[in-house]
Amino acid sequence: MAALKVAVIGANGRMGQQAVAAIRQADDLELVAEVSRGDDLTNVVDAGAQIAVELTVPASTKENLRFLVGQGIHCVVGTTGWDEQSLGALREQAAARPGVGVLIAPNFSIGAVLAMHFAAQAARFFESAEVIELHHPNKVDAPSGTAVHTAEGIAAARSKAGLGASPDATQHGLDGARGAVVGDVHIHSVRLRGLVAHEEILFGSPGEQLVIRTDSFDRTSFMPGILTAVRSVQDHPGVTVGLDKYLDLR
């Protein structure tokens, strides 16, 4: 079987460099284009890429996706900053190109994907739930896309189970002391030199606590997920959010 032809957008970034190396080492994949800031995206088309791995920044990713999807190129996207409005626009673009697959992955770490999955399962059994995400200080968004996705999954599971908001008697506090709120789940963001990507998901009920923690100590931890996504995206037309949809987590 011929190798899949892959391009990396954002190839000079930390994640991009790791993705380039991982794709080069994969026998069933062929790296045909490396695109960095300022490069023309037509290089991806001219190289005959079937799949593009998009690892840029929120300011440019949506325009990049508009071009790539318009060219019929499958996309694996690790850039965060997507909301329902931008996802809706992307779904419309993808619908105009039937057969094109797009994966928006809040996190490519298999550990993080499993943590989010386990958290959604646990959410209905506990009275309280909060999320702490810890990243390096160069990260441009807070809270992280992973934390937002985690909180959304927890909130959906709690709502389906008929649970109300976590108990909280706070009446006075400094701004931000209780963190951001996503679907009534509080998220606390830490930015600290020496960290890479870490998340703690805390559940509590009277007399007990469950903590789910995932740690990425190096960006190589994201590569198995990226390679899985690249190999699978053609089989999932339309827009998919979350690598878990490509895994057998039933």
Plain-language structure description:
Keywords: Amino-acid biosynthesis, Cytoplasm, Diaminopimelate biosynthesis, Lysine biosynthesis, NAD, NADP, Oxidoreductase. GO terms for molecular function: 4-hydroxy-tetrahydrodipicolinate reductase. NAD(+) binds at residues 10-15, 34, 78-80, 105-108. Its EC number is 1.17.1.8. It is found in: Cytoplasm. The chain has 250 residues and is an alpha/beta fold. The chain has two domains: 4-104 and 220-246, Rossmann fold; 110-217, Dihydrodipicolinate Reductase, domain 2 (2-Layer Sandwich), CATH 3.30.360.10. It is built from seven helices and eleven strands. The protein has helices at 14-25, 42-46, 58-70, 84-95, 110-122, 145-160, 223-232, and strands at residues 4-9, 29-35, 51-54, 74-77, 101-104, 128-135, 180-182, 185-191, 197-205, 208-216, 238-241. The strands form two sheets. The protein has a six-stranded parallel β-sheet, sandwiched between helices. Strands 7-8-6-9-10 form a five-stranded mixed β-sheet. Helix 1 packs across helix 7, helix 3 runs parallel beside helix 4 (84-95) and helix 5 (110-122) packs parallel to helix 6 (145-160). The longest helix has 16 residues, at 145-160. The chain is elongated and about 60 Å long. The two termini are 29 Å apart. The mean pLDDT is 95.
Short description:
This protein is an alpha/beta fold and 250 residues long.
